[in-house]
Amino acid sequence: MAKKQKFLTAKMLQSLSLGALCAIGAFAMGIETAGDLHPFAKSEAALQELLHVGSDLRGDVNGNGTIDSEDAYLLYEFSEGLETPAADELRRGDTDGDLHLTASDLGYVLHALSTR
């Protein structure tokens, strides 16, 4: 006669317990953040405030008054060493103040473009 197998083994119970704890944790996080109905309104205003440095728009490499795909393209070329920026392009494109045009500056511009 064949040996009868248990329906729930210790390993299965352990997995189910861990899954239940994860579900409870996710539910608790959802309850905690449920009242925050407009999380991006504040961050977008903060981003717009951060974008302006003096009279220049931070990240506006070409100086046309707006951050656009041309700025992202120029930053890509400068950060990869394909082109050398002029002094004013360096000043406008250096979003993090490290005096270099890097992938970090490009990421800043791409983020600004994605939040439009």
Could you explain how this protein is built, in words?
- This protein is mostly helical and 116 residues long.
- The longest helix is centred in the first third of the chain and has 24 residues.
- The protein has a two-stranded antiparallel ribbon with strand order 1-2.
- The protein is built from five helices and two strands, in the order H-H-E-E-H-H-H.
- The protein is rod-shaped and about 80 Å long.
- The N and C termini lie far apart (71 Å).
- The chain folds into two domains: 30 residues; 76 residues, Dockerin domain (Type 1 dockerin domain, Orthogonal Bundle).
Which labels suit this protein?
116 residues, mainly alpha, Type 1 dockerin domain, two-stranded antiparallel ribbon, 5 helices, 2 strands
* Average residue pLDDT: 77
**Spatial gap, N to C terminus:** 71 Å
| CATH topology title of the largest domain | Type 1 dockerin domain
The CATH C-level class name of the largest domain? Mainly Alpha
Report the total helices: 5
Give the spatial strand order of the biggest sheet.
1-2
